[in-house]
Amino acid sequence: MGQGTAETVRAGLPAALDHSVRVPLKQSWDVLLALTVADIRARYGRGPLRMLKWLLDPFALVGVYLVLVAYVLDRPGFAPGLSLACAVVPFQLVMATVVNAMSAVTIRGSIILNMQFQRSLIPVSSTLTEVVGFAASFSLFVFMMATYGVEPTWAILWMPVVVAVTVIFAIAISFPASLFGLWFRELRPFAISFVRTLFFLGAGLVPLAASGGGVNDTLRLNPLTGLFELYRSVLMFGETPPLWEFLYPLGLSAVLLALFVPLYRREQRQFAKVVE
User: Is the residue at 2 inside a domain?
Assistant: First the structure.
């Protein structure tokens, strides 16, 4: 990593992390918060325009397309723009986490070489950084629900649980993404394309309610389908989500964490050699 990049990363770190050189950290939360804040500052900058950028980023990414679906294209089905938002918003968190996590260790090369902290917090901080943009994307739900006249019901009380499932899944996938980005740097574009493909191989464009037979069963095998349908159940249909929509993404998350967290902790001993 170039000297300029290293200095930039280090300059963006709050004092809590830099202090870890002199005083051992007693709480992992301090490190996690420091890493996340540094990422957020690098992403959104400083000053009064930071909040504006945070609010407008979701519309810049997918908002224009959702407006096109809602007002221009004549798509069949119930509230197609809202249905698409229920898939795109959680997918953006997963996609952005994968992209961020694959380069997270390399970007933090300077602090890995010069500071003592728990390296296993790096993938988690990558996810939490993207959660900030994920939170801003909820304005798309409000906009789409207002467009189609879909009123919230008591089912919206499930949203904190739905969001927690989405974040847990993103954290779980951040660990294999970080290792893949280190081991196969030249294959990062293929990994990003693979994750994008999963969107189309799940119930992204078409909800499960509009599919049937063998196609419906096949779409359920994709864990992203469970995430997408969670949001549709709560926001579109105003009902309590079926249990499988919670358990399938959480079950896969548990498997990924059980497999890759120990592997990540073993490989982190070599990070100093990799980023030099």
Answer: no
